[in-house]
Amino acid sequence: MSRARAVVIIAAAAGLITRMLIAANMPGPADVRIFHGFAKAIVRYGPIRIYEQPLPGLPVYNHPPLAGWMLLGLNELSELGIPFGTLIRSPASIADFFCAIVVFEIVRRRGSLGAAVACGVGVAASPVLIATSGYHGNTDAVAITFALAAAHLLVDRRAPLAAGVAAALSISVKFIPVVVIPALFLVALRAGRPALVRFSAGFAALIALVWGPVLLTVPQNLKENVLEYAGGGYRLWGLVRFADLFGLPESFITYIEGDGHFLFVLACAAAGVWLARLRPAQLPVVVAVTMSLLLLLSTASALQYLTWAAAGLFVVGFWEGAAYSCLLGLTAVLGYQGRSAVHWSETVLLLAELGWLVLAAGLVSGVRKILAARPEPPARPPAGPAPVAASCAEQRAGCAVD
Asked: Quick check: 205 and 169 in contact, CB under 8 A?
């Protein structure tokens, strides 16, 4: 066991070095400049008031509160002479290191040790994650790592307090894992009142600490910028790409890109709750499948969003993860050939269409594996009081029979 874990740690370390070398030697897409602009604005206005400020030359600041504190810290480090372009890609690269280990721990409890090593190494060497973490540098990988860690801590480690903290961290750095929060709470509830209380306490404490000041100060701006953010209006991925390709009505496309996208978010959360109710012990796989489903149904288009399913499909299985990582990794590498934050050539669009189908196949495999897992036996009822001694008459009757 220790040797297998060491192999994954070495692979994860090699992956981290690779990512950091890319971050240190390549300029990255326009998002690196955008994050630097956000960091400068946060220095000026603070990580709370940033949500109500107009930011000329920058897109809407749509990141949860913890990201603001992270950018503030990274800017302080850049004042010491470390290039900000390297720093902004460090959190995601470091998250991938830990994610490889988390995936190894999840898989080894549900499959063979060899499969666990292969999946952990797969995360470390994933072309999608190397491109999106080492080159692009966003917070998606950090959020996914915390979401998987929360599920692992809750059902595999029996550490509900730490799981609640990890769950809160996942949505505090990027809001997308909100779709798995209901499933996490359901499994905590099924684990018993003490587990639910500890999980809720960890979750609530971190939320109050990170989100509380912003909710009390600029609640409307937070709601508009973060909670209601629907992504850009590009039609380059998934449902909106196929809808546009097949000439569906403009009103339909506009609807699913706008208010309609909340229906897909609710569908993902509902699917996670349903699977978690049926197989609570498979919660890490449920989280992986739910995040992958969110990407499948996403009406927004951005190359860094490919991160959402990369590690999760390795939780489902090695071949599912490898097929996705290789095909969508090529998509990301080609998509990052320009300095634009979004660079989708015809080749990239075609690869993304094929990748969407690979993602769908991986999801089907994931759901089948969850449902095929043996249901947990019903919990043994607590031991009751010792049986009441038989009455004297019963004792005498028993003695007569003897």
From this structure: no
pLDDT in tens, 309-358: 999 999 999 999 999 999 999 999 999 885 555 578 889 999 999 999 99
pLDDT of residue 228: 84
* pLDDT recorded at residue 230: 72
pLDDT on residue 26: 92
Rounded mean pLDDT, 132-160:
96
Report which residue type is found at 155.
Answer: V
CA distance 130 to 121: 13
For residue 377, the model assigns a pLDDT of 54
For residue 140 the two structure tokens come to 């998606």
Rounded to an integer, what distance in angstroms lies between the CA atom of residue 287 and that of residue 301? 22
Q: Which of 238, 230, 286 is nearest to 261 (CA)?
A: 230
Q: Please list, residue by residue across 96-106, b when 16 or more beta carbons sit within 10 angstroms of its beta carbon and e when fewer do.
A: bbbbbbbbbbb
List own/partner pairs for 332-340 with CB under 8 A and 24 or more apart: 332/127, 332/128, 332/131, 332/132, 332/136, 332/303, 332/306, 333/127, 333/131, 335/303, 336/29, 336/131, 336/135, 336/136, 336/303, 338/29, 339/27, 339/29, 339/30, 340/29, 340/30
Return the structure tokens found at 100. 């490889």
At residue 390, the pLDDT reads 43
Cα–Cα distances in angstroms (integers) from residue 159 to residues 24, 179, 187, in the given order? 37, 21, 13
Quote the DSSP letter at residue 248.
-
**What pLDDT sits at residue 182?**
98
Rounded to whole angstroms, the Cα distance separating 373 from 177 reads 24
Instruction: Quickly state the pLDDT bin for 401 (edges 50, 70, 90).
Output: very low
Give the relative orientation of helices 2-25 and 113-125 as an angle to the nearest 10 degrees: 10
- Indicate the residue type of 170: S
Determine the residue type at 129: L
Closest by CA position to 262, among listed 238, 231, 308 = 231
Q: Taking 90 as the threshold, does the pLDDT of residue 382 lie above it? A: no
Rounded Cα distance, 222 and 207, in Å: 14
Distances in whole angstroms, Cα of residue 83 to Cα of each of 39, 73, 87, 164, 231? 13, 13, 6, 34, 28
Letter string b/e over residues 32-51, b meaning 16 or more CB atoms within 10 A of that residue's CB: bbbbbbbbbbbeebebbbbb
